[in-house]
Amino acid sequence: MALKEECEVLNEMEEKEQYDKHCDVITGEKYFSCSQTEKTSSRKRAQKTGTKNYLTCFQCGKCFNQHGKLKIHVRVHTGEKPYTCPRCGKSFDLLRKLKVHMAIHTGESPFTCQQCGKSFKQKENLNNHMRIHTGEKPYTCPLCEKSFNQDGNLKAHMRIHSGEKPYTCPQCGKRFDLHGNLKVHMRIHTGENPFPCQQCGTSFTQKGHLNTHMRIHSGEKPYTCPQCGRSFDLQGNLNVHMRINTGENPFTCQQCGKSFTQKGRNCGDFFKF
């Protein structure tokens, strides 16, 4: 497809999205443009009580003050992805995600960091990146006051407090707070191991697991005991080792009452670092 045709497709999608935003669904069956004065009972109740969020997701109970926001949110549950790339056919739930994706085909990254030279497809991504250099964390959790450099990271963090898990596995029904965690979980069902070791061919479901595995080949031991200087390839192994210094034995055998530094199946499986 020619670049001109692709631009026309994106423009049509954008016009449709703007129209959808302009409309406001009150009952789920009736649309009202912003020029109409008729109100539904839902809106009237919201006005009387001063409630701003009067549109509710029937699957998770989350509330919204605009139909457009509710409509986008529902795609989390339905998996709907109405915006399709005209080049490769990949689909997205949001138009802005499609626009970012299209830059893969064009190779365009017009926004460049003046400090490190890294380029980005979106100005928003450059702004987020700049906080690495400035240390700015403008998004603060109102419950625990932890701060974040991106709004999306704050939203994900808030699910720790709310317990919200909006991403559901379609095969087993297990729920997750982050879409990335669902993607990793799905590999249990598909058997996909997309991260292979270039040295021995062992494959992994997560990049982090591959990085940990690579230390077998490189001999890297990035976790060092501050008391004796001994180094370890895993944080967990350092934690177990540190119990030698603290005297902590948090795992107790239910049969004999003996305690150990590391969890095991029975006394014969316990050992100390």
From TrEMBL:
Keywords: Metal-binding, Nucleus, Repeat, Zinc, Zinc-finger. One of its GO terms (molecular function) is zinc ion binding. It is found in: Nucleus. It comes from the Eukaryota. GO terms for cellular component: chromatin; PcG protein complex; transcription regulator complex. Residues 55-82, 83-110, 111-138, 139-166, 167-194, 195-222, 223-250 form the C2H2-type domain. InterPro entries: Znf_C2H2_sf, Znf_C2H2_type. Gene3D superfamilies: Classic Zinc Finger. GO terms for biological process: negative regulation of cell differentiation. This is C2H2-type domain-containing protein. It comes from Sinocyclocheilus rhinocerous.
